[in-house]
UniProtKB/TrEMBL annotation:
GO terms for cellular component: cytosol. One of its GO terms (molecular function) is oxidoreductase activity, acting on the CH-CH group of donors. Pfam families: PNPOx_N (PF01243). SUPFAM superfamilies: FMN-binding split barrel. InterPro entries: F420-binding_dom_put (IPR019920), F420H2_bilvrd_red/Heme_oxyg (IPR052019), Pyridox_Oxase_N (IPR011576), Split_barrel_FMN-bd (IPR012349). The keyword Glycoprotein does not apply. Residues 7-135 form the Pyridoxamine 5'-phosphate oxidase N-terminal domain. This is PPOX class F420-dependent enzyme. It comes from the Bacteria.
Length: 142
């Protein structure tokens, strides 16, 4: 039977392994745009980077509202949806530092610097999202 996750459970779930998030942003016409992202949870903030000129980068600069879904598609199925508002930074030191930390999660410590250097360049944004709402459910098929 499906159950709500505790605060500790959803934080562990979204931070476990290399699960990607499916990020939804708002297009200029109000329609949704969804894209997979690498991310980290840092306290009550979701942190990721993206290109300033990507669809999500342009959307976030215009309207910072986001929803992020992280799920486990294997039985008994679990998911977390985070909602919040993004703040953008182009500070290269900050962009590179976080790009390196994010890369360590997804590519491993041995390749983190390589990916941090690749993603911590002019034209990249650091995105911080204050998480305002969480929907977290476990054991959907139990």
């Amino acid at each position: 039977m499906a159950q709500k996750m505790t605060d500790e459970e959803w934080r562990a779930f979204v931070s476990n392994g290399t699960r990607t998030g499916k990020l939804s942003t708002v297009r200029a016409d109000g329609s949704p745009h969804v894209a997979p992202i690498w991310f980290l949870l840092n306290g009550d903030e979701l942190v990721f980077n993206t290109g300033k000129d990507t669809v999500k980068g342009r959307n976030l600069a215009r309207d910072g509202r986001i929803a992020l879904c992280v799920d486990d598609d294997r039985p008994p199925f679990h998911f977390v949806v985070l909602n919040g508002r993004a703040r953008l930074s182009e500070d290269l030191d900050e962009v590179r530092r976080w790009a390196t930390r994010i890369a360590a999660r997804y590519m491993g410590e041995d390749r983190a610097e390589e990916y941090g250097a690749r993603n911590g360049v002019p034209g990249e944004l650091l995105v911080r999202v204050s998480v305002d709402q969480v929907v977290a459910v476990k054991d959907l098929a139990a």
